[in-house]
Amino acid sequence: MIGELRSVVLAGGGTGGHVYPLLAFADCLRRHDPYVRITCLGTERGLESELVPRHGYELRHIPAHQLPRSVNMNLVRTPDRMWRAARAAGKILEEVKAEVVVGFGGYVSVPAYLAAWRRELPLVVHEVNVPPGVANRLGMKFTKHVAVGFPHQTQQVDALRNARVVGVPLRQSIATLDRAATRDRAREYFGLRPDLPVLFVFGASQGARTINLATAGAAKALSAAGIQVLHIIGARNEDVEIPPDLPVPYVKLKFLDQMELGYAAADLALCRGGAITCAETAAVGLPAIYVPYPHSNREQYRNALPVVEAGGGLIVDDAELSPEWIERTAVPLLHDPQRLSTMGAAAAAYGVRDGDERLREFALEAVVATGVPWA
Question: Are β-strands 164-165 and 228-232 bridged in parallel, bridged antiparallel, or unpaired?
Fold first, then answer.
C-alpha cells in the first residue's frame, strides 16, 4: 500500500463514456476511505449534471468550451476562454487542496488539466478510445501519467506507447457479477422463461436505429426458433414496433438502469461497440455480436475487434445487419451452447474486472512521484 488519498478532483463529462468510469472510480475511492473528499468538475448541461449528484458526489460547475477543429472565430476566442475556465477550476483545486486530478475526457476536462499543470499538481489522464479524444490529447501534453483501458491502444497510437494499461473502471454491480448465479433471478425480473435462450439487444442511451429495426424485423423468426429477446430500444425509439402475440417472450424497454441484470439474463448480446460496452461485456464473459457505429472515425470497430480476435464475439458492419442476417447468424449461435460457452470464456479472459483498483494504484503512484505543493 502506497498510502491513502485525502482529496481527489475528478474531471470528465458530456457522455456516458466519460461519466460512468468516473463514477466507478469515485466509488472505488470511497470504498477504500469513506472520508476521502471527492470533487467532480462538470457543466450544467452534460450528463454529469444528472448522474454525479444522484450518486452522492459533489459536482462543481465550471465553464467548458468545445475545442474548435478548424480555423474560425471560435479558434481566436479559445485561448482566453480556456484560461478563464482554468482559473475557475484552479480556485476549486486550491479550495479543496486536491492531491491529484484524474481526468476521463470531455471538454470539461481541459480546464482541470490546465489548472493542475499550472499548479504542478499530479495529473492522471484515463483514455479508452482510439484515437484519443481531443481533450485527453491535450491533457497528455501536461503529464506522463497516462492510463488506458485496453492493450491495443498502446499498440495503435504512438502517444500511448508508454501508457499504463489499467482497464476501465466498472460499476461494482457489473464488476462483481456472477452471471450463472444470477441468471434465474434476472430472467424472472424481466418475465423471461428460464429454459429458453435469450438475446439481449441494446444500443447507446438513445438507442441504435439499425439494431432496433433489424431485431424488430427478425422478431417472428427469433420467436419461432424459441429465442427470447430482451430489447432496450433507447430514449428516442418509441416507434419501434414489435409484432404482437409472439409465442415466446419478447421484452421491450426504453431504458435499463440495472444493466447487470440484462447481462445475467442473456446468452448473447447484440450491441454497438462503444468502449464501455466492450469493457463490460468482456468483463462479465458475455458473448456479443458487435455492430460498430459506422460514422466518425471507426473507433467502435477498433474497440470491438480485439474482443472478437480473442474469440469473445463477432463483428457485423452496420450496413450488413438485417433481419435476415440475424436469422442466419444469431439463431444458430443461440442454439449452440458449447460455442457460446467457449466465446464467453474467451471474452472473460480478455476482460478486466478491477480497472478501478488499478487506476487508484496508478493515481497513488503519480502523487508519490510528483508531490503535492500544499502537502
Answer: unpaired
